[in-house]
Amino acid sequence: MARPKLDKIVNLFDNGKDFEMTRSQYISYTGADIPQNKRYTEEKSAIARKAFEYGYEVKVIPERLEFHKVK
Question: Which long-range contacts (CB under 8 A, 24 or more apart) does 24-33 make?
């Protein structure tokens, strides 16, 4: 599996608003596919760690990711 390039997603985190992206958008932004394991994707993946760094949490919904600003 390719390592995701998260530079483009960081701009979305900087907005400070909840957002979501489809699997195809994630691939377009990062050059990598969404990890197959839901728990890993939400808690330990590169995108989960980056989201947490910016105060977000990741929720995996089939074929898309939701990012929620933690209050």
Answer: 26/65, 30/4, 30/5, 30/6, 31/2, 31/4, 31/5, 32/1, 32/2, 32/3, 32/4, 32/5, 33/1, 33/2
Stated pTM of the model: 0.85
Sheet holding 56-61, edge to edge: 19-22, 64-69, 56-61
Give the pLDDT of the chain (71 residues) as one tens digit per residue: 678 999 999 999 999 999 999 999 999 999 999 998 999 999 999 999 999 999 999 999 988 899 999 87
Which residues does 46 contact at the CB level (< 8 Å), separation at least 6? 3, 4, 6
